[in-house]
Amino acid sequence: MKKFFEFEALGTNYKKETVAGLTTFLSMAYILFVNPSILSAAGMDGNAVFVATALAAAIGSLLMGVIAKYPIALAPGMGLNAFFAFSVVLGMGVPWQTALSGVLASGLIFIVLTLTGVREKIINAIPAELKYAVGAGIGLFITFIGFQGAGIIRADEATLVALGDISSGNALLAIFGVVLTVVLMVRGINGAIFIGMVATAIVGMLTNLVHVPTAVVSSVPSLAPTFGAAFTNFGDIFTIQMLVVILTFLFVDFFDTAGTLVAVANQAGLMKDNKLPRAGKALFADSSATVVGSILGTSTTTSYIESSAGVAAGGRSGFTSVVTAGLFVLAIFFSPLLGVVTSAVTAPALIIVGILMVSSLGKIEWQRFEVAVPAFLTIIAMPLTYSIATGIAIGFIFYPITMIAKGRAKEINPIMYGLFVIFVLYFIFLV
């Protein structure tokens, strides 16, 4: 096992990888409850979606860990599930079974793009500056999510965002978690993020801010209401409306995944010569997970940026993802215990990870304005638009413009010109 996952070369061990896998799981366990809530609004059975979510996450994470050997976990993606439920099903009036067929189709297309090497070539064609910007932008984005979830930041009609009620219980609990985790990190304590989350959850239960579970084990709900539904109306996807839906699923998943893979790999020190080793295998695992998830009965399954919490806790190999996969399987049986993982408990991890990820800002050549402009727009657009994909799109549109204006057109990979056109069309027809 150690040889297969290259523990010695990566400077890791079973203890580090296990703690990292558990940390990643705790950071993304919220999806087990949020996803059923969102998809049930589209008329799907919430209990079945819960099981589908757990199994899709487990299978996807296992594929990533064993095939690509990366410490990156997968689960149904936030944003894509909202698009599925509120835009496609409720907004367009598309039956949820047909929407699942669209997810299945996008996953199959993904696999074809991966096997032909097109997807890997696209990622490797992205300039180093933009890859660093994507990592930093995602860092700001997840920090914003952490602040928002804890109530430290709130919506405001006049200024869009403002300081929340930091005297509220959840905000104070999150602040406690941040302070504790920061102290542990500064002291160089291994697994500081994980320890901080556990301590925050315990304090939350002691202060009645986090629900104390009344049971440890519960029965497993039936998967029957959603399993295989993606095949029911598959013939209905061949319409202009559904082609737009499939393209959107494909587009958002493609670039969210690309951004997450690059950001987490950079954080873990796994990038080599500005390229992602085994990128094809990682992308195949991701696209296969989408296909499996759609068959089980959930929206697009994708790589999770919360994996960076596990990397920060010491995860470096695919064994981290294997541990996370096992925990998602166990979650099906011990779902009552997951009630302690509230937004206030996960907020400290997201905020600290955001701090770690913005370190890539130092690698960007800010004195070169033609590089600074697309990098900055990529970074700032992610939290402001609440979308990783939109941030990538804006930055990638400006990159050819500034490089050509500077007289450096020959340095631009032809693929970047193609992405420029695609992103422009994306804003014209899909946004």
From TrEMBL:
Chain ranges passing through the membrane: 20-42, 48-67, 74-93, 99-118, 130-154, 166-186, 193-217, 237-265, 326-359, 371-399, 411-429
Membrane topology qualifier: Multi-pass membrane protein
Keyword Transmembrane helix: yes
Gene Ontology molecular functions: purine nucleobase transmembrane transporter activity
UniProt GO cellular component terms: plasma membrane
Keyword Electron transport found: no
PANTHER family assigned: GUANINE_HYPOXANTHINE PERMEASE PBUG, XANTHINE/URACIL PERMEASE C887.17-RELATED
Family: Belongs to the nucleobase:cation symporter-2 (NCS2) (TC 2.A.40) family. Azg-like subfamily.
Protein name: Putative MFS transporter, AGZA family, xanthine/uracil permease
Organism: Litchfieldia salsa
